[in-house]
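Q: Got a minute? One more chain.
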Amino acid sequence: MTKKLLLFVLLFCLFILTASAQVGKSKKLSTPPPPCGIKLLDGYVHVPLRGIDSWVGRIKKEGRLTITYDIGYLAGEYVNHCLWDNSCLWYKEQQFNGGLVKIALGSNEAIYATFPKTYANFYAEVKTQEDIAEFLLIIMTYDETQECENKI
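A: Always. Here it is, folded:
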């Protein structure tokens, strides 16, 4: 009788472990894509967050760059942070894909990009030139002309 009970308990535990592994896999598969057609570089993942009045999330790679985004009318233009206090190391504007993009590198090792037409802001702490390159390669795939999912 105890052998049957032990076998039952072991099978039950195996069933629970298998079911929880399947739930974990299904959660990973259900992560929504990055906003407005952003293409991720190899190794990067999209982590949506819950915003109150804007669409927020992160694009990150373990041990590397983390890009945070904030999209919505009330988000404003993050690129202005270093313009207001005159701490930009450089600032550039460019017409791109039917809209304007503003990019600035602050003296605080932060890079900012704003697409004013859709109030889309991206920022990251950059430590290397490779970080800057990866930031630009990712955010420049943002397509403010495409119809994006509900942002908030």
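A: Strands lie at 45-49, 55-60, 66-71, 88-96, 99-106, 110-115, 120-125.
Q: Perfect, thanks.
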